[in-house]
Each structure stands twice: as C-alpha cells, then as structure tokens.
Write a structure and sequence with these properties.
5-stranded antiparallel beta sheet, RRP7_C, RRP7, disordered N terminus, alpha+beta, RRM domain-containing protein, about 300 residues, RRM_Rrp7, 8 helices, about 15% strand, two-stranded antiparallel ribbon
Length: about 300
C-alpha cells in the first residue's frame, strides 16, 4: 500500500505492532510513513537515507534499530536523527551561510576544532530527562549503510502487506533504554535539582561560545560589506561604523537607486533630434493602427444591428 501525501510525495506505510500496556491492555497498530529522503538542500547522504513521518512518541534509536534489523537484517541501520535534534543553541546568520562559508578563513587545525567542539559540548545545560518524548506526528531521518539498503527496506515494507508479520515495538531492545512511567518521572524530579556549580559552568561556557561566534559573524559581515549581492547591490551601512542597516533602510536605498537609474535613462532617451522624430513617427503609426481597428469594430456592430431580433 503506497498512499499519496498532500504534497504529492509517495509514502510507503510501515505498520508496527504496539504491545499492550497497563493503560491500554490491547494490541494496536501504529502506521509509520516512509519514503526516500529528498530535502530542499541536497546532501551527500540523501541516496542512503529515508524520511520517516508519524513516528511513535516514545521513539529511540534502539527502537528503530530493532525494527530495521527485523526488516532487512543487522548491519544495514546506521543511525537516526529525530526532528529538532540538529538545532544549534548558537548560530550565525543563516541567510548568508553559503556565501559566508566561501569567505571564511581556512580550515583550522584539528586540535583547535576539537577544542571548540568540546567547548560547545560544555555549553549545554545538564539534562533533566533520562529519555525524551516526541510530539505527535513527529518526523525523523534514518541513515542506512548504502543505497541498496534503502531499496531492501522499501521492498520489505511492501512484502509486509502480504505476510502481515509486522515488527513488534520494543522487541529486542538493548538494556540501555531507560523505562518510562513512575521511574522516569521520579528521575526527572531528581535531575531538575541540578548542581549550582555545574549550571554556572555551563552558562559561562555558553557565553564564551556565543561571543566567539559573534566575533566570527562580525568578521564575515566586514568582508561582505563591500561585495555586491546577487542583484548587484552592496550592503547598506549607516553611522560609519560598518553596522548593517535594517531591512527597511536597505529597501529604501535600493528603491532610490532604481529610480535614479530610470530617470537617467529617460533623460538620455531623446537626447538627439533624430531620436525625437522617430519616436513621434512611431506614436502616429500606433494611433492610426488603433483608429483602423476601432473603425472595423464599429462597422461590424452596424452590420449586426440589422440582424438583431429581441425576444418577445
């Protein structure tokens, strides 16, 4: 069964058997929709990744590792990225990310990169949940070993519609998956009372990362200041300090520039006398043409007038 999504993309349905729980002591089927990953900005791993929609709220990587192992065997599943996991806490202006990357400095040495990565890890506050839940109808990206694995998964899903042997959710999990329920809530209450020194350390690390990225963004902005954009316009600055103007001021400057160019073009249009004569001839020819067309329309209306018979 392959339904068509509202956006026109085709999804294959992967039914997963949800075992009974104390709150709902009956077996149920949960449908996960899967298709080949085709993001707006292509990446090198798109050919060996799958896009999942409507994943269970209690999904974890071990859960899907067990599901895909049952579908195509071990060694095909690499990792899964859930919706919202890749959002960074501190970012540089994304509107110029591609152009900024081209103008950025040369790649730093490995030890400096490792130091910055460790600094960003230290900037995260202590976790207060032993296991994260996902919102309803959440999405995820599954990365497989190769493109062949993607084909095998889709074929296995098609075969499930005939055999009806659906994967069982939570079967074959490793021991590192934290349980939900009262244990999960009590651990959350305990972790919410974080150590003050640990929180303060993470906060200081966050501002160090923030200041470093702000400095990098300022350097990139300085390089881009005098370079034209795709439309040939240069970034507008104010105050002589090199700070970018707001969007309204930039659009106003662009409008004035266009009006100035149009005015200059119109002033040079009839600079020579022969140009003026040619323009007048063109206008007269257009007037005569419209007159003849209107004349034909009037004659046609007069001919039809005699044939008109009103209804009684």
């Amino acid at each position: 069964m392959v339904p068509v999504d509202a956006a026109g993309d085709q999804f294959a349905i992967l039914p997963i058997q949800m075992p009974p729980v104390p709150s709902f002591p009956e077996t149920a089927l949960h449908e996960v929709r899967i298709r080949r990953n085709a993001p707006k900005i292509p990446t090198a791993n798109d050919s060996r990744s799958l896009f999942l929609k409507n994943i269970p709220a209690d999904s974890t990587e071990p859960h899907f590792r067990a599901v895909f192992t049952e579908l195509v065997g071990a060694g095909r599943f690499e990792t899964i990225t859930f919706e919202g996991e890749e959002k960074a806490a501190v970012v540089i202006d994304p509107a110029r990310a591609i152009k900024a990357a081209a103008l950025a400095r040369k790649r730093k040495r490995g030890d400096v990169e490792e130091e910055e990565k460790a600094e960003e890890e230290a900037a995260r506050l202590p976790g207060i949940w032993t296991r994260q839940l996902h919102r309803s109808s959440s999405t995820a990206i599954v990365l497989l070993a190769d493109e062949k694995s993607v084909q095998l998964v889709l074929k296995a899903i098609t075969k499930l519609q005939k055999t009806k042997k659906y994967p069982v959710w939570g079967q074959g999990l490793s021991d590192d998956v934290q349980p939900l329920g009262a244990t999960w809530v009590s651990s959350h209450l305990r972790l919410s009372r974080a150590d003050k020194a640990e929180v303060q350390k993470a906060t200081h690390a966050f501002f160090n990362v923030f200041n470093r990225k702000e400095k990098e963004a300022a350097e990139i902005s300085k390089r881009l200041r005098n370079e034209p954009d795709e439309d040939g316009f240069v970034t507008v600055t104010r105050g002589g300090k090199g700070t970018p103007a707001n969007q309204f001021e930039a659009e106003e400057a662009r409008r004035k520039m266009v009006e100035k160019a149009a005015k200059k073009k119109s002033e040079m249009k009839d600079f020579y006398r022969f140009q003026l004569r040619e323009r007048r001839k063109q206008e007269q020819a257009e007037l005569l043409k419209r007159f003849e067309e209107d004349k034909k329309k009037v004659n046609a209306m007069r001919e039809k007038r005699g044939k008109f018979k009103p209804e009684t």
